[in-house]
Structures are given as C-alpha cells and as structure tokens.
Specification:
The chain is α+β, with helices and mostly antiparallel strands. 41% of the residues lie in helices and 11% in strands. The chain is globular and about 60 Å long.
Length: 352
C-alpha cells in the first residue's frame, strides 16, 4: 500500500510530464488530483529538483493560501502565472532565496490574492471604459479581426497603467515590458513589478477566454448585451473554468500541516488553482461553463483579481455591443498554455 499522502508510483510518470501535457488539456490531471487525499508528494525527476507537494482540491488549496507558514517566494514564482512552466514539477534551476526575505515579509499569500484592499483607484474605471470604446471603434468598419492582438492585448495594459499612475501615452511601453521584461517604464518595488506583469498577462488571457466562451454561446452573449451587470458573473466563471494563471508555487517558511499531510520547512507546495476550480465536491459538473452557478466563488486564479474584474466590467461592453460580432466561420477558440493559459487567437467577423 502506498504511504498516506504520497502518489502511487504508477501515477508519477503522468504527473512528471504535467508541464507538457497540461498545455493541451489539464482536466485529466485535475481529476487525478481530486481522487487523492492531498497534498500529494511528487519526487524530483531525472532533471534535478527536490520534489514538490501538489494541492488540487478546493478545500486544500484554500487551506494552503490561508496558511501563514506558506509564503510566496520570488525564487519560485511569487504570483500565479509567472512560474517557469518547463519546470512545473521538476523545479530545475530555481534561484533559492532570491526573493525569500521579500516573500516572507509579504505574509500569507492570501493577503496578496484575496484582500479587499486590492481595489484599484476609482478613476481606473473611466479610463478603461474610454479605452474599450476606442478599441471597439477601431474595429467598427472592419469585416473581421483577431481580438487577441487587437483588443485583449491592449485593454489590460491600459487598466494597469491607470492603476499605477502611468500616463496613457506610455501604454505601449508598459505592454512591451509586461511581455518581454527589461527595465520597467516606471520605478516599482520588485514584488509589485512581478505582480503587475502577471496581472496584465493574466487579464489578457482571461479576456480572450471570456470572449471565446460567450461567442460560442450566442444566447449567453445576448443575455450579457441586454444586462451588462452579468459580466461580473461571466468573469468569475471564466476564472474558474478557464483560469488564466492556473497554479502558484509557495514555500514553507515554517513546518505546516495541511489537510492530509505535513509539509516540512523549506519544501515547496504547488497550489493548482485550476484544479481547485474543477473540484466536483465544490463545483458540481465542473466541466460545464455556467455563469449562473450557485455557491461560493472560486479562489481567483489571477494575481490582481480586482483589477481584472474592473477591466472586464468597464472595458467589454463597447465590444460586446458591436453589431454582427460572431466567431469567424470554421474557427473554434482553444485555450493552451501552462504559465498563463488562454486562446492565442480569437478570429471574429464583424458587422462592417
């Protein structure tokens, strides 16, 4: 019999290749973790690394995020969406201690992801709304477009720039920095810089997933057009069903005990936020995209949930209201990716 809290040996090869396979379809791995009384210990692989604990059930993920002894660490990815996907399980080449003090000083990661103090400044809503009208207006006379580069990649940068107090004319510089790194377009503390980049990228992918979900469900699209307040529920369901930042790596600053097992000081815990959102014990029929879903909202798989929601709430209505907006004939959106996940293309036809 396998030791409690350790994955049966026959399952290790499947999880050891998680980084490559999850890019195509993570659902089978989510189901695998839901069957285990997590956390689940996966050893290091031939490429090196000291192994990692996997946490994938909703209750276990919430417990990990609320545990003061587990801290976000810049050496292992201090916000979701910025961990090196190639080392998702093996953990090769991670810098130890590179941001340890900063991560430890930040306290529980729940304070980073879930605190109400994360509300963006009030003026950001107006900036985002104007940007949504401008971006939609540029598409108004077109017969077709790819909404990923022409809408989803721009709106989050505008929102982030407004939240950080950056002039609108610096939006392109901010967008390039979020994707390519290098010197930031304004001075930021390291932790905020990492989080800002992750938030911009996660929002862009989430917008693409949200639009893809609505465009493949015309009745839902019509409902949101008629009642824009539904965007909040659509956004929440998108983060659950198609999380843009599917996982978060934490490190145990002190020995901690999670439901199902103990984690020693120094060990890493991979919180699979995407798996938590597909936990059938918390979300019946998790594969069904349903913005009317009852129950408590899922843990937001996003580095800056308040800013992401504001971007969708105020920036999407001008686009969704465009006459003739529909998927291009024969095109079906498909989410891919490990570090950040969402459609890379979203081909549509327009009324122009």
């Amino acid at each position: 019999m396998a030791d409690p809290g350790r994955l049966p040996r026959s399952h290790v090869p499947a999880l050891a290749s998680l980084a490559a396979r999850v890019a195509r379809d993570p659902a089978p791995y989510y189901r695998l973790l839901h069957r285990e009384p997590g956390p689940v210990r996966v050893p290091g692989t031939a490429g090196g690394g000291d192994g990692i604990w996997l946490v994938g059930r909703d209750a276990d993920v919430r417990a990990a995020l609320a545990e003061p002894g587990l801290v976000a660490d810049a050496g292992t990815g201090d916000v979701p969406g910025l961990v090196d996907g190639a080392g998702l399980v093996a953990g090769e080449g991670r810098a130890e201690g590179a941001g340890r003090a900063e991560g430890a000083a930040a306290g529980p990661v729940a304070g980073m992801m879930l605190a109400s103090a994360d509300a963006p400044p009030p003026h950001v809503a107006g900036v985002v709304a104007r940007a949504g009208h401008v971006l939609a207006g540029r598409l108004g006379s077109r017969a077709g477009a790819d909404l990923v580069p022409e809408f989803c990649d721009w709106l989050p940068a505008v929102a982030l720039g407004a939240a950080l107090g950056l002039p609108y004319r610096r939006t392109e510089a901010l967008r390039r920095w979020c994707r390519a790194g290098g010197p930031a377009p304004l001075p930021l503390p390291d932790a905020l810089a990492v989080r800002a980049r992750g938030a911009e990228r996660a929002t862009a992918y989430a917008l693409a997933s949200l639009l893809g979900a609505l465009l493949t469900r015309p009745a839902q699209l019509t409902a949101v057009r008629d009642e824009p307040a539904l965007i909040d529920a659509v956004w929440a369901e998108t983060l659950r069903h198609d999380p843009p930042a599917p996982y978060l790596v934490l490190r145990a600053h002190d020995p901690v005990r999670l439901p199902g097992g103990a984690v020693a000081a120094g060990e890493r815990v991979l919180c699979l936020l995407g798996a938590a959102g597909w936990d059938p014990a918390a979300y019946p029929h998790p594969g069904r995209w349903d913005p009317y879903r009852a129950g408590r909202p899922p843990v937001p798989a996003h580095p800056w949930p308040g800013l992401g929601l504001l971007t969708a709430r105020y920036g999407l209505p001008p686009l969704l209201g465009m006459r003739g907006l529909a998927l291009a004939p024969g095109f079906a959106p498909r989410a891919v990716g490990v570090r950040v996940r969402g459609p890379r293309r979203l081909l549509v036809r327009l009324g122009g």
